[in-house]
Amino acid sequence: MILFIIVLGIILFVAENYSMSHTLDQVEFTTSLDKVLVEPEEEFLWTMTVKNGKRFLVPYLKIREQVPEGLTFSDTGESVEESGGMGLSSVLYLAGRQKTELVRRVSLKERGRYFFRGSLVEAGDFLGIRILLESYPELTELVVKPRPYPGNELSLLLGGYLGEFPVEKSLFEDPILTMGFREYTGREPFCSISWTQSARLGTLLVKQQECMSDMTCTVLLNTECRAMKTPGPSLEKCFSMVRSVCEELERKRIPYDFCTNGIIAGAMGNWRTVEEGLGAGHLSTILEGLGRMTYDCREETVTFYSRILKGSRAGRSFLLVAPEQTEETERFLLALEERSGRKALFLCAKEMEEA
User: Are strands 176-183 and 293-297 parallel, antiparallel or unpaired?
Assistant: First the structure.
């Protein structure tokens, strides 16, 4: 009997030490999301996959997932509260070669970048006396777009600025509209001379024309806030306005590009320009950039405006979005209108808020 107890004790001692050393061997933890870019409060699937690759069971496994603040369960509406960075806890039993998926339907309310940073795992020993702690870091990212700008004030401003361009274009077989006449300087094509008007006034006149089918637009976002102690709310309004502007341009099928002096953080790279285009992919790139925007700027206002003026060309429309009105902005808009030959539209977050 004594011998049996001794042998049993030796077996338990060996099993205990083995379990403490190898409980988490071949156990894998993976966090995955079914979307990487979502709308505010849009539901997405957050899945934790746990796989036991060995033949032996794992009798006790507590997983504490590090999740972003503000995560909300869709079925209950309750938020996942972070506790010391540990996040949500789950307790599992894993048989040999077992794979388990914990699937949750969740959402996030605010614009920005969010990270699922892996798990802290607590495993029990063979006898249930001691525990083993291991960290499994990950970095799974999700970006939430800015909300569209609320109300109809912005839509009215854009409608007045852009006009009914698609409708006008469809009313004319010839997309070239004659806006007026001016004196011939010798640099214009000979075919542009209006002989009827020239004969009537006794001097050579050429047609001033507008190509309706070639209307293009540049959307500018200035994120510098020198006079604001807390620029966050105003910049959030700017991001929302840029989104609504781009969506309106998409709706009217007007090709546009986007340029900013803001900092776009993350995997997209710190770009500052999206080239001219249209379509879901073009808009999605801009919206993801807006979702990744920080409250800092990479260029001062004067430098940003100077760069835009150097690259501006005649016949192009410009829409500038900024948190505040400054003397530099007024001078920039005047110079931009002189170079492009078109009136520029300025959308100021502070003025929109006051209105």
Answer: unpaired
Q: Which of 347, 353, 107 is nearest to 242 (CA)?
A: 347
pTM of the predicted structure, to 2 decimals: 0.78
DSSP tag of 193: B
321 to 242, 253, 257, 260: CA distances (angstroms): 7, 20, 14, 10
Q: What are phi and psi of 324, to 5 degrees?
A: -150, 160
Select from 216, 222, 159 the least CA-distant residue to 348: 222
Please write the tens of the pLDDT for every residue from 141-166.
Answer: 999 999 999 988 888 888 777 764 44
Compute the distance between CA of residue 208 and CA of residue 182 in angstroms, rounded to an integer.
Answer: 7
Position 86: which residue type?
M
- Is the four-CA dihedral 270, 272, 277, 283 of positive or negative sign? positive
DSSP secondary structure, 40-84, as one string: TT--EEEEEEEEE-SSS-EEEEEEEE---TT-EETTT--B---ST
Strand partners, 307: none
